[in-house]
Design brief:
disordered N terminus; Double Stranded RNA Binding Domain; DNA Methylphosphotriester Repair Domain; 10 strands; alpha/beta; 13% strand
Length: 343
């Protein structure tokens, strides 16, 4: 039987939710097919009466079951060790290791390593390395280092490589991070919607802020040294698309974003954008999905650090008991957003 850390009904709930945080804690034996799976297995759920839970893969095998070829439940510990080895290698390397080198390190094929790493962290190894280096630059800038010092101390071989990464990921140069938006042009406007007054701001790369019941004062607090402008024709077209997205959810408009955060925050934001319209996830489910099942509070903080409401849908995250929890712009707007998506 499974250990005391979870009873059979909790285990079944984890299976129904495909909760990856329970992978490695038990396996699900399906007596009608003779296989056993991870709790998070993507295969169709079996009938409850055909299920038996086992603490370890070897217990399931002793009962005559074989491992599922889809989710490979007997590889959980190996997968976790591989992901940890990649993270350690990326953190300690002077330059980002190549995927083939990481594959040799872990004993996996490059394609399989890429797949399990992204499944566990929400990022590819290359994207994780870029995010880590950019995070180191921001930390160094916050501590008062010069831009050049921050770039090289973070492991970039050249300033041009850093600025190429910055342009690809964040759309703002290091001096702008350090100097409150100095040198950036941010166009903005406020517009009335069915949810009340909505403020939208964008750089040349994409939307950098979407909020409710805020205006120029709050925007200037976010970008105190940026040049704020009322939007021109191109911005007005973008604004119309944003309003359509808010008013008619369910239609994908592929709106470009210009956001920046830590590697963890960006992994959370990526996971939020995967939640289908009208559905919700708990903070614990998001923490599990980004490979940090104990980081529930940190998920809440990442939600709070999101300045692009709706387009990064932090309103779809609720408490584990199903209640709405908090929202930066008020629980009533959160409720109306979810009702709009469900209808």
């Amino acid at each position: 039987m499974i250990p005391d850390i979870v009873d059979s009904e909790q285990a079944w709930a984890a299976v129904r939710a495909r909760d990856r945080s329970f992978d490695g804690k038990f396996v699900t034996g399906v007596l009608s097919t003779g296989i056993y799976c991870r709790p998070s297995c993507a295969a169709r759920h079996p009938k409850r009466e055909n299920v038996r839970f086992f603490a370890k893969p070897e217990h399931a095998e002793a009962a005559g079951l074989r491992a599922c070829l889809r989710c490979r439940p007997n590889d959980v510990a190996r997968d976790e060790a591989a992901v940890k080895a990649v993270i350690d290698a990326v953190r300690t390397a002077e330059s980002a290791p190549k995927l083939d080198e990481l594959a040799v390190l872990t004993g996996y094929s490059a394609a399989h390593l890429q797949r399990i790493f992204k499944r566990e962290t929400g990022l590819s190894p290359a994207a994780f390395a870029r995010a880590l280096r950019s995070e180191r630059v921001r930390d160094a800038l916050d501590e008062g280092a010069s831009v050049t010092e921050a770039i090289y101390d973070a492991g970039y071989g050249s300033a041009s490589r850093f600025y190429a990464d910055a342009k690809q990921r964040l759309g703002m140069h290091a001096s702008i991070w350090k100097n409150g938006g100095e040198g950036a042009i941010v166009q903005w406007a406020s517009v009335e919607t069915s949810l009340g007054s909505m403020m939208v701001a964008a750089t040349g790369k994409g939307v950098c802020c979407l909020s409710f019941d805020e205006g120029e004062e709050e925007l200037r607090a976010r970008f105190p040294k940026a040049e704020l402008q009322q939007g021109g024709e191109a911005f007005k077209r973008l604004l119309r698309t944003v309003v359509e997205q808010v008013e008619t959810p369910g239609r994908s408009h592929n709106i470009p974003l210009d956001v920046q955060g830590t590697a963890f925050q960006e992994a959370v934001w990526l996971e939020l954008r995967k939640i289908p319209d009208g559905e919700t996830r708990s903070y614990a489910e998001i923490a599990a999905a980004v490979g940090k099942p104990k980081a529930v509070r940190a998920v809440g903080s990442a939600n709070g650090a999101n300045h692009v409401a709706v387009l990064i849908p932090c309103h779809r995250v609720v408490r584990s008991d199903g209640t709405l929890g908090g929202y930066a712009y008020g629980v009533e707007i959160k409720k109306r957003l979810l009702d709009k998506e469900r209808n």
